[in-house]
């Protein structure tokens, strides 16, 4: 069976999942569409879950079906990444899980900075390639989140600390503060941290220099 050509516009997110940005990434036909997906987590997947919760027994069946589909996404992604590691002659184990409404796959057990990049740009590209591999198998857009060597967990902690400092600055000055350009995943983390602190934020600019603006109350 021959796969139809798939373009980036047909598959993307953050979001993300814009996982990754979700308050935590539809295809990237327009930049604002990406943030709507990643920043606000308003996509078709969310509609499936809400409908399942309202339909009683049928809802439970739908949730089970969705969980199975996410597990399948993780398996497809893991197979793709395992082959990639073999081709590149790199070590690493693969951990698969389902977190919320997305599959997650982590390459662990080895330090692989070459799969992360200086600012995570290689990791973001690898995540999109992995989502494409899932799309080609399932025909459905994936919001799978990929991590390598714990990079996202470490980066999340640093971003939450940075966001807290900006929130304090905004509260004291009463003026909006623009942060440095970030990936969809990073923006999602900041949006969540700002919301938890009682303020609002928005994404501005164009990829790859899209950034978060933290707004006063």
Key descriptive features of the protein:
217 residues; alpha+beta; three-stranded mixed β-sheet; three-stranded antiparallel β-sheet; 7 helices; 51% helix; disordered N terminus
The Rg value, from CA coordinates, equals 18 Å
Sequence stretches where pLDDT stays below 50 over 5 or more residues = 1-20, 22-55
How far the N terminus sits from the C terminus, by CA atoms, comes to 55 Å
Output the helix-strand order.
Answer: HHHHEEHEHEHEE
Mean pLDDT, to the nearest integer, reads 80
- Portion in strands: 5-15%
Question: What's the overall geometry?
Answer: globular
Number of strand segments: 6
Strand arrangement, major sheet: 1-2-3
Which structural class do you get from the secondary structure elements? alpha+beta
- Biggest β-sheet: count, sense, barrel? 3 strands, mixed
Helical amount:
40-55%
Annotation field: number of helices: 7
